[in-house]
Design brief:
three-stranded antiparallel beta sheet; 105 residues; 5 strands; alpha+beta; globular; single chain; Double Stranded RNA Binding Domain
Length: 105
């Protein structure tokens, strides 16, 4: 293999890696449009809020929904409320998406 063709191949591999990092997973947009912290209809217990998100099912859920077994082997994010905003820990998101360009304070 000549050095020119090797260089072109390396450039293509690097370009593919950049595109792959910039692509959003299918579930991300649906997750960003979700609302959380409503009361769970299936488990109307006092202070039981929808504070988890099942990536596999694209569903908000409470702690009882998650422990019921239907989501046992699913990918789940825990949502926190911070200054009236719904947030997810960076460590949790890093498991599912590339967060290398996210700046934290």
């Amino acid at each position: 293999m000549s050095s020119t063709s090797r260089l072109v191949k390396d450039e293509q591999v690097e370009k593919d890696q950049v595109q792959q990092r910039n692509q959003q997973p299918e579930w991300l947009q649906a997750f960003l449009e979700r609302t959380f912290f409503d009361t769970c209809v299936a488990h109307p217990i006092r202070r039981n809020e929808l504070n988890k998100y099942c990536i596999n099912c694209n569903a908000s859920a409470c702690q009882y929904c998650m422990s019921s077994g239907a989501h046992r082997h699913h990918r789940v994010l825990k949502i926190y409320r911070h200054v009236y905003k719904d947030v997810v820990s960076l460590g949790s998101m890093e498991k599912y998406i590339d967060c290398s360009q996210i700046q934290v304070c």
